Amino acid sequence: MIPAQFDYERPASLAEACQALAEDDEAKVLAGGQSLLPLLRLRLAYPSKLVDVGRLDELKGVHDRGDHVFIGAMATHDEVMRSPAVTSGCPLVAMATSHVADPAIRHRGTFGGSLAHSDPAGDLPAVVLALDGVFVARSAQGEREIPAAEFFVDYLESSLAQGEILAGVKIPKLGDGWGFHYEKFHRTAQAWAIVGVAAAVRRSNGAITEARIGLTNMGPTPLRARATEAALRGVELGDAVRQACEQAAEDTSPPSDLHAQPDYRRHLARVLTHRAVRTAAGSP
Amino acid sequence: MTVQEVGQPRRRKEDARLLTGRTQWTDNLTRPGLLHVMFLRSPMAHARIASVDVSAARGLPGVVAAFSGQDFAAEQGSLPCAWPVTEDIVIPDHPPMAVDEVRYVGEAVACVVATDRYRAADALDAIEVEYEPLPAVVDMNQALAPDSPKVHEAGNKAFNVTITSGDVEAAFRDAPVVIDRTYVQQRLIPSAMEPRAVMADTDGESFTVWSSTQIPHVLRVMLAVVTGIPEHRIRVIAPDVGGGFGSKLQVTAEEVLCLLLARRLGKPVKWTESRSEGNLTVHHGRDQIQHVRLAADADGRIRGLQVDLLADMGAYLMLVTPGIPMLGAQMFNAIYKMDAYQFGCTGVFTTKMPTDAYRGAGRPEATFAIERVMDELAAELGMDPVEVRRRNWIKHEEFPYTTISGLTYDSGNYEAATEKALALFGYDKLRAEQADRRDRGDPVQLGIGVSTFTEMCGLAPSRMLGEANYGAGGWEHASVRMLPTGKVEVITGTSPHGQGHVTSWSQIVSDALGVPFDDVTVLHGDTAIAHKGMDTYGSRSLVIGGVAVVKACDKVKEKARRLAAHLMECSPDDLEFAAGAFKVRGTEQQRTIQELAYAAFTAHDLPEGVEARLDSDATFDPDNYSFPHGTHLCAAEVDTETGMVKIRSYVAVDDVGTVINPLIVEGQVQGGIAQGIAQALFEEAVYDADGNLLTTTMADYLLPSAADLPNFTLDRTQTPATSNPLGVKGVGEAGTIASTPAVVNAIVDALRPYGIHDIRMPCTPERVWRALEGVRR
């Protein structure tokens, strides 16, 4: 890897890291490096400085905090998918994380890094959006909480300001009766999702009482399939679910690339949403 | 007592070193004062170069030199094409660094030499190139249109060939069935695990070039021819080489330029490509449009076959570019008998990276077309695809058999391989499940694909290469030396880059000389050590190089016999050789080969005419190609809602003749099948209409990993080749040749009830879905 020249700083505390970023508009945070290093390698990014937060204990770990699970930004994908707090408190996160790239990348890549990168083709943004996660950002000015619905601004763009670092994400625990599924559609195991669907479905007495659906790679940001969510409310399993899922691609603007055209992605969103919801509804 | 080594699944001698990182990849090597080279590459598919200004780059820290193509115009020569397939072929000048015009994205236009790679890369940004854009020529059919912009002044047609055997017109006239199809062999990027790398150094008089190459011997000759540096002053070393698949069967711009830079600067230089640079500038593979017509009787018997190819040469003709489609010229008829055959091929220039050898080289393309068309014939007649093949293939009792295209297949048993494969596969049961799914209207349909392939390999009989106007012979060389302590040193002219020659050659020598497997070492890949060789490609190494080793062992034994007879005072005819010793018949008197090696070393008492040291050289040149064959069966599930294809099971029964090491053979077949499946489902080099390569990273150019492939069920039949004393046929390419049509046939078989008779490769979910959408409307 032959990147362009950059300065490198490894601050001893999160406060120092925020300071280093605030001082330099062209500085970038280096976490697990699984998104940033490819950009450097291809010389698609020319940061003046990398602020390495890899050794900051304040960003590490996964914590069960009663009504939510707090996942530190520097928790690796592998830690997240194996964490008992995650597998019991927010199993959808564990399920989706196990689909991220390959084992080598999951040992390096981080939960926070992947979300802060805000790639709509990444698996985690749609999941956190579906679960109404809350992003916790730190800066010299203190701490700020950003609801997932406001975090993803545009393609590769989050609402984090320069000088702000993602400290972690609160994933609210859902109560009883919820089932989950992440349906990832990709051509090879290591490839990005052409389309992904994260579904959380609550059932009561055979009917769906609530559904939350996050869509991966169906627009410049992760999206919620709001029309389908609304149509699923109160619906019995069966044909009505299929009909509700026919609306999954509404208000999406899927990209066109080598792997798929927009009309095919819309079709996939409908089929995969149906599969994800059906599977999620089948689990207790 | 010694066990017979040939046939044992020996673990590879190479692996402990390779797996523990004690390797010598070219990029790991260094020299005192080593400088690093990087190339500035054209971002334009086609343009006149108005100016190149390297002066700003020269002034940057750490930069030792920077040059444009013009700076080397007088000495860089033209990259060679060694296979002018016709008398009137157009072979354009191919400067290693472009001087006046660039003709594909990635073509080198300037270079920087610096003290490290970071500074070299930074300096590339400081080079100013002014391009005057010319129109890109991307599509072969458009390239041949009269009003097409020209890639070269002489036009866009490189060559045209037509070969006819039998009365084609009669075969098609009044034929009850004619199948007429056009298939596209997409362009592929051979993705060897080790990227290319070159290092060159000089002592002021002679030059050494280290390169991640398959062909150190050919490269040495060609570097001398291209640069004018006398051949005896060039030494080429292929250190550990991490895969090639044909992509390192090449004489590259970078090899020539590193040598010339070492000469100009008087210093060692090295270049290592990045993966993206490799995707742009390692020669590509395949890229043909195949128009195939097959005439048959109502009972499925083939009357005639007519093939018309457009073969994309890319922008230039490289080492064997035009020969690749010609390697398929005699293979479209495959294992089938027919009355008439016609092969036509037009080589077309486009403003894209040149194509050249890629695993199978011409034969996968041919096999794909015929095996796809055989399935179409079966469907047309409502016949089982295995049955239609059975009615047409050469029966085992008919060998040797001279085919309609003029090759003589020495041996084979298609019936045996097919019966074994069908049983392992559970063919009838899967057909029943397929029928059931069709009846139920299951959204996941099942398809079964057959490929009863053969190939010609063991490249090649020199006489036949001469007839094909290839620029070299196809012999191979080996030396076998008994060392004074009884150990054996083998020098082979083959150049392994993952095939395990060290292990297989050791097994061969162990049996031939009766010495322990561990007592044999094999040297290769250095023109100063292996002074003769034709290197490794075309599944030739064992079939020719391995046989050369046997021949050299025979000569060593003959010399040892004369020495043993002399020492034991008997006639050579009284000696029998077994278990590594010459024994006087009917006595206990014997001399081991090790004792004789020592006696030959001391030379105290040699018979007249026997020279000191027990060693010998041999060269083997076969009379014929070899013809591995086999039957591959694939069951694929096609999700008709999403278009996703999942391979459920895959059975391959290969006949590669005698097997030296079953573990290595299995590895070759596994990897080969995976690479063929990759063409069917995943890989495609995509250029846009302006000639930009869109698949420059592995995020865009999809290579499957183990997670994307099923377990393969492998078995073999063994019909020894009669064209060489080992009975071997070669196995390097078989899996790749066989598997692509097996997979696509399975997919099309699943979709046939919908009225779909083809999916273009790679059969992506989107393409399958669109085909279904097309018929649903």
From TrEMBL, chain A:
<dbReference type="GO" id="GO:0016491">
    <property type="term" value="F:oxidoreductase activity"/>
</dbReference>
<dbReference type="InterPro" id="IPR016167">
    <property type="entry name" value="FAD-bd_PCMH_sub1"/>
</dbReference>
<dbReference type="InterPro" id="IPR016169">
    <property type="entry name" value="FAD-bd_PCMH_sub2"/>
</dbReference>
<feature type="domain" description="FAD-binding PCMH-type">
    <location>
        <begin position="1"/>
        <end position="176"/>
    </location>
</feature>
<dbReference type="InterPro" id="IPR051312">
    <property type="entry name" value="Diverse_Substr_Oxidored"/>
</dbReference>
<protein>
    <submittedName>
        <fullName>Carbon monoxide dehydrogenase</fullName>
    </submittedName>
</protein>
<dbReference type="InterPro" id="IPR002346">
    <property type="entry name" value="Mopterin_DH_FAD-bd"/>
</dbReference>
<dbReference type="InterPro" id="IPR036683">
    <property type="entry name" value="CO_DH_flav_C_dom_sf"/>
</dbReference>
<dbReference type="InterPro" id="IPR016166">
    <property type="entry name" value="FAD-bd_PCMH"/>
</dbReference>
<keyword id="KW-0560">Oxidoreductase</keyword>
<dbReference type="InterPro" id="IPR005107">
    <property type="entry name" value="CO_DH_flav_C"/>
</dbReference>
<keyword id="KW-0274">FAD</keyword>
<dbReference type="Pfam" id="PF00941">
    <property type="entry name" value="FAD_binding_5"/>
</dbReference>
<keyword id="KW-0285">Flavoprotein</keyword>
<dbReference type="InterPro" id="IPR036318">
    <property type="entry name" value="FAD-bd_PCMH-like_sf"/>
</dbReference>
<dbReference type="GO" id="GO:0071949">
    <property type="term" value="F:FAD binding"/>
</dbReference>
<dbReference type="Pfam" id="PF03450">
    <property type="entry name" value="CO_deh_flav_C"/>
</dbReference>
Automatic annotation (TrEMBL), chain B:
<dbReference type="InterPro" id="IPR000674">
    <property type="entry name" value="Ald_Oxase/Xan_DH_a/b"/>
</dbReference>
<protein>
    <submittedName>
        <fullName>Carbon monoxide dehydrogenase</fullName>
    </submittedName>
</protein>
<dbReference type="GO" id="GO:0016491">
    <property type="term" value="F:oxidoreductase activity"/>
</dbReference>
<keyword id="KW-0500">Molybdenum</keyword>
<dbReference type="GO" id="GO:0005506">
    <property type="term" value="F:iron ion binding"/>
</dbReference>
<dbReference type="InterPro" id="IPR008274">
    <property type="entry name" value="AldOxase/xan_DH_MoCoBD1"/>
</dbReference>
<keyword id="KW-0560">Oxidoreductase</keyword>
<dbReference type="InterPro" id="IPR037165">
    <property type="entry name" value="AldOxase/xan_DH_Mopterin-bd_sf"/>
</dbReference>
<dbReference type="InterPro" id="IPR046867">
    <property type="entry name" value="AldOxase/xan_DH_MoCoBD2"/>
</dbReference>
<dbReference type="InterPro" id="IPR036856">
    <property type="entry name" value="Ald_Oxase/Xan_DH_a/b_sf"/>
</dbReference>
<dbReference type="Pfam" id="PF02738">
    <property type="entry name" value="MoCoBD_1"/>
</dbReference>
<dbReference type="InterPro" id="IPR016208">
    <property type="entry name" value="Ald_Oxase/xanthine_DH-like"/>
</dbReference>
<dbReference type="Pfam" id="PF20256">
    <property type="entry name" value="MoCoBD_2"/>
</dbReference>
<dbReference type="Pfam" id="PF01315">
    <property type="entry name" value="Ald_Xan_dh_C"/>
</dbReference>
<feature type="domain" description="Aldehyde oxidase/xanthine dehydrogenase a/b hammerhead">
    <location>
        <begin position="20"/>
        <end position="135"/>
    </location>
</feature>
